[in-house]
Give the backbone structure.
Amino acid sequence: MRAFSFDRDQDGPQTLELDRVPVETEWQLESWLHANAEVILNEPLLIFGRQYGLDTGIPDLLALDQWGNVVVVELKKGQSGSGSASEETILSQPQNYAQSLSGYDYEGLEEVYREYKRNLRDGEWDAGETAVVEDSLKKAHETAIGGGVDEFNTHQRMVILAEEITSRTENNARYLLEQGLAVQCVAVQWFQFPDDASTSRSLLLSSTVVDYPLSRVQPEDNKVDYSTVIRQVRDRIYDEIGDMTHHSSPADISGAASRRLGFDSKHPDHPDTVLYRFKPHMVERGKAVVSIGLFGSDEQEKDRVRDVIAKYADQLEGFQTNDEHRPNSNLVYIEFEQLNREPDEEFIDAVVESMTKLVRHYHPKLIEEVGPE
């Protein structure tokens, strides 16, 4: 493989001949990917299981995607249809694993995660600083990817990962895609720089050979573009609370996303961990949530925020507080259930009124009781 290094002080590029280095064992490949999940797919993943025993066998890695779908990762040293897995089994194995996992509810996935954490604590697996160890799988998903998932394991995805994806594996995978299965094939190869190069680093290259649009595995609600509704709410919210939260313009409130609005306060004494949120949820069926959530790593500040939320919750008519299972998501919230129509002015008015009420109620209290110590 040839790579080109450019230096402003040189007239032309420097050619580097990179040497392909075969992976020594599948265990080595699995360990690398376990500690570097971002190499597997071009999207965030949370590893929550490794070598977990199912009734149909033992998958190499189990992950959750951003929507809470289970991702089965089957690894192969060398070519995809060789060695311990023939062309006939390289795709049938992950199908069997996915079939077993399709019957797992959240508690079943939680048990997989508990075993995974035990192995991490016992030193069986070493993921360095990349491992996400939390009290629950929901919390781990929230920490690693952002959470916001209402239902886990809606879809089961399969990833065949090898140093080389054979044409037969590729063709078989494309056939399964046509049959409606969510199969991806990824080639991962290891290269070393030449001895005379200025660096001794190696290079790991990942390329997706068989892919599909992510809309195939998105929840139906996530396929809807709510950006127009969100911009309308954002602009109205700015008019109501922009001075209080020290936002300089509507664009300063992060509302360009297509599915949710979330913003923190720019007031210097407001806790940084607090996020004010509006999430349309199946608005074509009339639902939406206005809430306060928590993010970031300052657990002490989060605890103080929770105390303030609980202390003054009774004074906020129409809102509910969340239970202890999801302490960072929808800490205090109101859900609209009976707006059985397309988003219209009445819907926007209700959302803006509720969000303004929420911010005005808690913003000064959070500044006074949680702000800088």
Summary: The chain has a mean pLDDT of 83. The radius of gyration is 24 Å.
